[in-house]
Design brief:
- Residues 23-279 form the EAL domain.
- This is Bifunctional diguanylate cyclase/phosphodiesterase.
- The chain is 50% helix and 20% strand.
- It is α/β, with parallel strands linked by helices and 281 residues long.
- An eight-stranded mixed β-barrel has the order 1-2-4-5-6-7-8-9.
- β2 and β3 form a beta hairpin.
- α5 (129-140) packs parallel to α7.
- It is globular and about 50 Å long.
- The chain binds ligand C2E and calcium ion (3 copies).
- Ligand C2E is lined by residues 44, 60-61, 72-74, 77, 90, 93, 118-120, 181-182, 238-241, 258-260, 265.
Length: 281
């Protein structure tokens, strides 16, 4: 080895070791996290621009690490995907969300809400996904119309025929809401997308960021909204943070918004309070 190869090399090696052991530690932590109850679901409201009501939420996974605190999904979802743990964890999320929907329906004064769960590519490739979802809905006593699913554009394009089949099966189980997440970041035409049984496009945050001034973002948002509507799809804008963005989206016919301007993702009780406070305004 190059033991006298200079500081650069030594630094690089020790940094690589740290990263590798970090990663291994994280992987082991994730393997135990389900059993130890360290996963939580946060909820971020979706606001209907037509009447200003909160119509539901997106469920977002959180990992409460005993030492590190709340770990962001950007850090651990890729590891769950690579190790295949995402299948188990994904089922756990579906279960946790359906239990929560049922709890709200039976014990709270909340209006009916539709809650969206993010699916991973691996889940979508499983031929039994529709059955898994239907079983969870039945066990928890939740009607399929209250569960929404989000799949990304790139997940659909990975194996389009498989995606069509699985989504059709899911739809046949009574699921009414399937969204295409991060829309505009992949490489598919809207007309091609139309072969998928979908209802809604989520305009990616990267296009919302530049509103209402960036000319490209204006053109892209307006085009997505117009084309989506001509195909009878709903449009959700994600990552809305500022008043000017909201005003632009409202003026340009966007249907639903999500973002820090309404609320960041919050634990279930805080979300319930938010909905109640909002409906009393
Ligand atoms: P995503 O599905 O695109 O979720 C939206 C992300 O944007 C969330 O990050 C949310 O907290 C964040 N966000 C929402 N509004 C704003 C805003 O106004 N400003 C900014 N800066 N950010 C905003 P989060 O919760 O860290 O999740 C990151 C990604 O992790 C998600 O992106 C999704 O791809 C994945 N993910 C989260 N939960 C799950 C899950 O249960 N299953 C799977 N398969 N993936 C998940
Ligand atoms: Ca999403
Ligand atoms: Ca998204
Ligand atoms: Ca996004």
């Amino acid at each position: 080895a190059k033991e006298d190869g200079g500081n650069g090399y030594r630094f690089f090696t020790s940094e690589m070791n740290t990263l590798a052991s970090d990663r291994l530690e994280m992987e082991n932590g994730l393997r135990r996290a389900l059993a130890r109850g360290e996963f939580e679901v946060y909820y971020q409201p979706k606001l209907n621009l037509a009447d200003g009501r909160i119509i539901g939420a997106e469920a977002l996974l959180r990992w409460r690490h005993p030492q590190r605190g709340l770990v962001s999904p950007g850090e651990f979802i890729p590891i769950l995907e690579e190790t295949g743990l995402i299948e188990q964890v994904g089922s756990w999320v579906l279960q946790a969300v359906c239990q929560q929907i049922r709890l709200w329906q039976t014990t709270s004064a909340l209006p009916p809400l539709v809650i969206a769960v993010n699916l991973s590519g691996r889940q979508l490739q499983r031929s039994n996904l529709a059955t898994t979802i239907a079983d969870i809905l039945e066990e928890t006593g939740v009607e399929p119309r209250f569960l929404e699913l989000e799949v990304t554009e790139s997940m659909l394009m990975h194996d389009p025929q498989c995606a069509v089949d699985v989504l059709m099966q899911i739809r046949n189980k009574g699921i009414l809401h399937i969204d295409v997440d991060d829309f505009g970041t992949g490489y598919s035409s809207l007309s091609y997308l139309k072969q998928f049984p979908i209802d809604c496009l989520k305009l990616d945050k990267s296009f919302v960021d530049g509103l209402p001034l960036d000319e490209d973002d204006i053109a892209i948002s307006q085009a997505v909204i117009a084309m989506a509507h001509s195909l009878r799809l709903t449009v959700i804008a994600e990552g809305v943070e500022r008043e000017e963005q909201l005003a632009f989206l409202r003026d340009n016919g966007c249907d639903i918004i999500q973002g820090y301007i309404i609320s960041p993702p919050v634990p279930a009780p805080a979300f319930a309070q938010l909905v109640l406070a909002h409906s009393q305004q």
